[in-house]
Amino acid sequence: MLTQFHRLDLNLLRVLLEIDRCRSVTEAGRRLALSQPATSNALARLRQAFDDPLFVRSAGGLMPTPLAERIVPVAAQHLESLEAALTEPEAFDPLRSAAEWRLSLSDLGEMVFLPPIADAVLREAPRTRLTNVAVPAERVADSLGRREIDLAIGIMDPKQRGIRSTLLFRERYVALSRSDCPDGWRTRAGFTDAALVVAAPTATYHQGIAESLERHRLGHRIVVRARHFAAIPDLVAGGQLVAIVPEMFAQIACARLRLAMWPVPLAMPLYEVGMVWHAATDGDAAQIWLRERVLRLFRRGAAAGGRAERTARAAASAGSR
Description:
The chain is of the alpha/beta class. The protein is built from 13 helices and twelve strands. It has three domains: 82 residues, Arc Repressor Mutant, subunit A; 117 residues, Periplasmic binding protein-like II (D-Maltodextrin-Binding Protein, domain 2, 3-Layer(aba) Sandwich); 97 residues, 3-Layer(aba) Sandwich (D-Maltodextrin-Binding Protein, domain 2), CATH 3.40.190.
């Protein structure tokens, strides 16, 4: 129960949320640029104000009390709303801007997405800069929250508080082989005897390829597991290997080497590629501008003309909530 409301300020609520996020006073202070004593003092003031311990020590770090579990989501929602209300969006002039955008793309995303993004962005905003940070998929939400990256593109659907997402497209997996591969490989019977190569980089969730093969009881046919998709074309070009890769990657590989892509003779699920960003940047004009460029480039099936423009702007500024 809150007994000393007058002792509570917004900075204390920020400390509350950060401790809940990382379950450590020291780490919360580091993220907030506060000393350990200052963070401990803030927690003491919170405990006094709410007349509750709020967090108790456990083997896994600080655990929230039932009262803290009730307070945290409410405080987070209201702080986000207040931040949005107090932040006046500044006009964005792409010709004058010297913004430095930080994206998170896997090695596959770097090949597929970065060239057209760089071309579109630098053509309209020539003084800006783009950096690919390539954060592992499971850390994307945390990196967005820390403002280490501006947006990420890939197979991801974060459920964490404050993360926005929008679907760009659905894609299928195809088989990739040397151009003169035996016709028998393209049949189900022949495919089950083929030597397979898959890629499972840490920055994506394409590990689903291997999982699908396991469901078809073909996990034992995987003879090479690469960390990067970039290694796949050379692996299949001169040998007896067949790779299962996203179709968009196969198209790039076939354009560069004498390779063939063909339908996988197995039931393989489609995968979804989305863009994610932090809710705190919903009203940021520069961030909206960047997201609009990504949507125009990669969102499939959008209506033509003005309706597509309005759709892109709405998704860029709000996303899937």
